[in-house]
Design brief:
21 helices; globular; alpha+beta; Beta-galactosidase, Chain A, domain 5
Length: about 700
Amino acid sequence: MGAIGYYGYLAARVPPHRLLATAARRAVRGARNRLAPPLAPSPRGLLEALGCDGPAGLAALLARPRPARPAWSPEALRRALERRIPGEVERALGRAEAAAAGRFVVYGREVDVRRADGGTDWQRDPVHGGRFDGRAPSAALPPAPGLDPKMAWALGRGEHWVALACGAVLHPRAAGGDALAEALAASVTDFAAQNPVGRGVHWTCAMEAGLRAWHLATALWVLALRRAPAPALAAEAARLLVASGRFVLANLEDGGAVPNNHLVCDWLGLLACAEALPEWPEAPRWRALASEGLARTLAEQVHAEGTSFEGSVPYHRFSLELFAAGFLLARAGGPPPALAWRLHAMFRATRALAAASGDLPQLGDNDSGHALALRARGPTEAGYLCALGAALFRDPALLRPGAPADDAVEAAWLLGPEALDWLGRARPGPPPGSVSFPAAGVHVLRRGALEAFVSCGPHGQRGVGGHDHNDKLSFELRAAGALAVCDPGMPVYGRAPEVRDAFRSTRAHATVTVDGLEQSPIPPGRLFALPDAAGARLLAFAPGGEAERLAGEHRGFVARAGVVHRRELALAGAGLVVVDRLAGRGTHAVELRWPLAHPAPRLREASAAEAAALARLARLARLRRPADPSRVVEVPLGPAGHLLVAFSAPAGLAPELAPSLRSPGYGELVPASVATLAGPLACPAALATLFLHVAAEGSHPR
């Protein structure tokens, strides 16, 4: 799809008056920012505007624990954590001390971020080794081939400031807590000195400024549980908050055809600036704009069923963190926020989408985005959100039976020891069953130890597909919580466009490719666009009965190959049967690929007991051809046992195994594998794949 085709697609999806209005806003803001760029106030001007005699008075203004109501003492929190979450105090102190020593975790790697002359090397990509120009205008940074700005942004978002504040509050010795508070002050002061507004990589978009402001405000509120910020920290933090509020408002990311999670970050950051420094003259306007903006984006970007409109389950998690943070801020500063029921629905959707392991499926992009920096979390982890939602709305149905105690860490910090005690007493609801989210195009089949997370529906962002992949009819499969059939994930965005396009391609996913075609053509040079040409739709969703059943189709190959791809899934206690039907004419090059999370599966012959179980599965799905027991794939699942993958296919097609890679989180690549069935196939045709879970405790299939 070329530029003309892409803009024609946008015009068909987005009303022309909206496109014109967004273009006008961009032009007006650009002109205003050139005439009066948003800058930090002078120290004297800041104190005068706030009516403070000096930095000590400013420190007193910032010494207000929020957003929790009421405040609690560090001793009460420490006792609650020690009682309910053993080891959490020590973990928080270890994280804080690592941050004070300049050791940060950046996308799964611990890196040393210290400059040779002291402080943090803020402009560095600590993973790929180079640096961005810290003095160049942010709007015109010189090219930095091979570098990823997201790696530098991970340093500048201020998550380590929250870690330092948590450590300062929990440290058992006053001197130790003071040292961590001093490290926080030094880091904030160093950031302000090394990153003047409008210069370098950290002021390239409002989203980053908004997240940084939220984390700075969170750090100040946490620190206030123990002590007022030092005058030097108060002065630099207040100037940075004012500069951030001005910058966010001047560069608000509502100018795209379909504003997305960036705009939510903007509103959250603006509200954090207003709530952290309510005496600032601009704060009332910021609060009003941000509160209304968050309510509007919640209505626009979250379906009534509780799922994000992003077209990505990991981005649903990120959006939920952002909206939950905004809800807490708005609730602390005034009447109950609007549309609380929709936020509650987001928590319920998260509970329904979370696997038995507590992880979300990687369907769509995953940039490991995180807004609640009170504990390090894995890139697909979601159990902590179930606990937070349960405590926030007093809804025990959101809790997971047998969940680890540390799911409750965020609720403890944000809502206090009383919420932690409530979580300890609450009785979790029953595990979720099969569930369908048609607006998001995500559906879950559950029976026994098996869970299948299926992508089938429209592209997100109203069809623009900025965070979508060509994964229609693909799925992730877990057995007893262990990931078996996987999504490839997303290791990179702009640093390597060709890699991004490969990981969002049809061939990268657990689905069928016909004649090497994409389900939806990938627009060249548009990393965050995937206009929906597949037209995927759910044909049937039938939970219960002898099996959990789902059927769907997409028409992405019709225009170029004349083939409709339909997929039927039947999940029973014994396993899962997937039937792929290709409706069309002629002979086509067909490739059925199953990406596997384990790097070393093996081909072997099924045992007699396994062959009998596969035959029962084939009868359940009413297959005309039995699965071939002489060539099955065994996928190790650790304590969960193993998964057998067998095929029922026309003569001449046989499974092959090959090494592969998958991305469990942004910027990460680990060894994986892929099982492939490929060759010419006369259509109409059908292929069947049988997945049999064999529990570890015995040799007999479940």
